[in-house]
Amino acid sequence: MVENIMIDQTEKPTETLETSKEGTKPEQSVLAEIKQNASLIERAVITTETRITSRVLRTLTTLRKRLTDQILQEAIQLLASQKIRTHLSPYLSNDMQLDSSSVEPSETGVFPEVDIYLSLLVILRLIDNSSLTSALELASNTLNTIRALNKRSFDPLAAKVWFYYYRIHELLGQEQSACSHLLVGQRTAVLRKDGDCQAVILNCLLRCYLSAKAYDQADKLIAKSTFPEGAGNPQLARYLYYLGRVKAVQLNYSEAHDNLQQAIRRAPSGTIAPGFLQNAYKFFVVVELLMGDIPERSIFKQQLLKSSLEKGGYLAITQAVRVGDLSLFADALEKHSENFIRDNTYTLILRLRHNVIRTGLRMISLAYSRIPLRDICAKLRLDSEEDAEYIVAKAAREGVIDATINHQQGYMESKQGGNIYNSEEPQVLFRQRIQFCMGLHNDSVKAMRYPLKAKDDDLAKAEEARERESRLIREIEDGDIGKGEEED
């Protein structure tokens, strides 16, 4: 929700306006923040340091909630060039009167990056006002301006504009029409080695394909493209989440589990991106159940996930798989089918029926050393003893249970369980943990940055040493050092 703050100039400010700690009006504080962000963008352009621009863009979420048409009009008149001023003003409401005494437009020395930043703020304002057609028009014009100017300092800003360009299409229900433009932008970003735009556009394309359930196209895109190494953690987490969903549909549950787990670990905190974490955990729980494992109880007790997983039906599905009860699984599936369809997990949960049967059969094999097939049919609620015999034979062949079937007398006999530490399973798990720790260490080392100031200091010290050495050589050649010793 964007708050519009109406100011009554006839009353005392102390009675009608909320003030900040410095005693400034909320509009003035927001305008001052925009001016500070513009100065940081100018500094990023001068020093060719894109990290400063990325830091400015991270404040869009909090700044977006306090934007108004009046604040944007003042910022545009104060910071934008004349061309952008006339271009952006029609998109905002002109009902409010601007205080011309406080606005002094700058005609010279305006950086085009600041114009793009102001255009991005106007796009956000139009999205919040549900003016999606105008927002799409402005986003398209902004992308054309970025292509025309073709500056590398635009890369972080262009990535944000591309993201909201697709988001507007998604809100309009026209995300499929944006794919062709996204593919062109992806090809251009790859040729220019623009890592920011590559990551954002690739994630938008994967989201578009997954929304249309075009999993083959998404898999081809993943196989023929490479995610840039320099992309930030939020984009990497989003890419791993989409990759995990594609692998889960393709029955590659182990890779899907690893990708979803990495996406959860790299995602922002729950206060910043709660929706992403909830969706990622929903797929993570389902994939872990499909692998034959039961998710930890602590996942369902987290404050952020407790409501979504319980009300969404994932806790009921997990309980049904854990006890191996087909009737409980069918009831949970019927009750929460609408939630599963909305979360795009329905087709994956339908595959869990076989896991429910396998889990129930494993529990029966551990509890009974010998049990008739008709009792297995009754416990698992199967249709016939022939189905029970087929399922037991298949589970024994796959190694789910260690048992044999007596076909003449019609019973299943379980073998005594061996020592798990004599198998390779503990070694595999230990190797996986070591590989994860080593990968985390290598990523941390790659992500380390050193300040440029230290390099400048080293250069200054080296230059000073060279000057001192050349001065000493000149003194030796002129004989000043020998004269000084004779005088002494």
UniProtKB/TrEMBL annotation:
The lineage of its organism: Eukaryota, Fungi, Dikarya, Basidiomycota, Wallemiomycotina. Residues 237-419 form the PCI domain. GO terms for biological process: regulation of protein catabolic process; ubiquitin-dependent protein catabolic process. The keyword Transmembrane helix does not apply. InterPro entries: CSN3 (IPR050756), PCI_dom (IPR000717), PSMD3_C (IPR013586), TPR-like_helical_dom_sf (IPR011990), TPR_PSMD3_N (IPR057985), TPR_rpt (IPR019734), WH_DNA-bd_sf (IPR036390). This is PCI domain-containing protein. Belongs to the proteasome subunit S3 family. GO terms for molecular function: enzyme regulator activity. TPR repeats lie at residues 237-270. It comes from Wallemia mellicola (strain ATCC MYA-4683 / CBS 633.66). Residues 9-25 have a biased composition (Basic and acidic residues). Residues 1-27, 458-488 are annotated as: Disordered. It comes from the Eukaryota. GO terms for cellular component: proteasome regulatory particle, lid subcomplex. Keywords: Proteasome, TPR repeat. Gene3D superfamilies: Tetratricopeptide repeat domain.
